[in-house]
Amino acid sequence: QVQLVESGGGSVQAGGSLRLSCAASGYDYSGYCMGWFRQAPGKEREGVATVSNGFTRYADSVKGRFTISKDNAKNTLYLQMNSLKPEDTGMYFCALDMERSFLCNWAPGAYGRWGQGTQVTVSS
What angle do CA 65, 124, 69 make, to 5 degrees? Predict the structure, then answer.
């Protein structure tokens, strides 16, 4: 059974950095689409970044500040977040789409496996 476990969230001041990790177990996920999504209170879950086979995609709001990467040997997905802003605050989730290995979906509903989330809070 595939399990995704996020870590690395926390509280930082604007301009700070955090690195989120998502450890995957139970399956070799290396060939599939994976992504980071976030949800702020009262808002819908939104895509932050996706990656598959070296191809990455970012939300316009995080381009140039966030970097998604995978370490296939460790079965771990990362999200390096720099120059954080208060509007980046939310619960961050990693997700796995075992139906696609390229042209990753942006819609959260396309992802069938989710972690429990890790909270990121950015204060001004």
Answer: 25
The three state secondary structure string of 11-62 is: EEECCCCEEEEEEEECCCCCCCEEEEEEECCCCCCEEEEEEECCEEEECCCC
Q: Which residues of 11-45 are buried (b: 16+ CB within 10 A; e: fewer)?
A: ebeeeeebebbbebeeeebeebbbbbbbeeeeeeb
Could you give the CA distance from residue 70 to residue 29 in angstroms, rounded to a whole number? 10
Give Cα 76 to chain centroid, integer Å: 11
Q: What is the dihedral of CA 82, 85, 90, 96, to 10 degrees?
A: -30
Tokens coding 98: 């075992």
Q: Write out the chain's pLDDT in tens, 124 residues.
A: 889 999 999 999 999 999 999 999 887 788 899 999 999 999 999 999 999 988 999 999 999 999 999 998 899 999 999 999 999 999 999 999 989 888 999 999 999 999 999 999 999 9
**What's the CA gap between 109 and 48, in Å, rounded?**
14
